[in-house]
Amino acid sequence: MFWNEIVGAVFLLIGAFFCFVGALGVVRMPDVYNKLQAGTKATTLGFLSLAVGAGWMQPEWALRLLLLAVFVVITNPIGSHSLARAAWRSGVPVETASKNSDTTNLKRGKR
């Protein structure tokens, strides 16, 4: 029982770290596109680590946590893509510091 608590606590700490890094990325990134990426990727990984840690410490919660994890893995990328596409179509500019890719030839608005 002692090792289960240690492994679960390690996963909880890893998850908390990634959630903190995701929140920090949302605050620190220059534009909405980078903020969406930081918020989606890091917090998804953070939540999955938190779910594994909680499932490791409380095995009777495993099925519920698995369902939550599947829901988060499916909905986070879809929501992030929808927000980024809406921002792009409404003309939200890309920060000049993040223009490493060629976005000048892309058309905005409806197709």
Walk me through the structure.
This protein has 3 helices and no strands. The chain has helices at 2-28, 32-57, 62-89. It is elongated. It starts with a helix and ends in a 22-residue tail after the last helix.
Give the domain tally: 1
The Cα radius of gyration reads: 18 Å
Helix content: over 70%
- Count the strands? 0
Summarize the helices and strands and which ones pair or pack.
Blueprint: H1 2-28, H2 32-57, H3 62-89
Summary?
This protein is mostly helical and 111 residues long. The chain is 73% helix and 0% strand. The chain has helices spanning 2-28, 32-57, 62-89.
Which descriptors would you attach to this protein?
single chain, 3 helices, mainly alpha, elongated, 111 residues
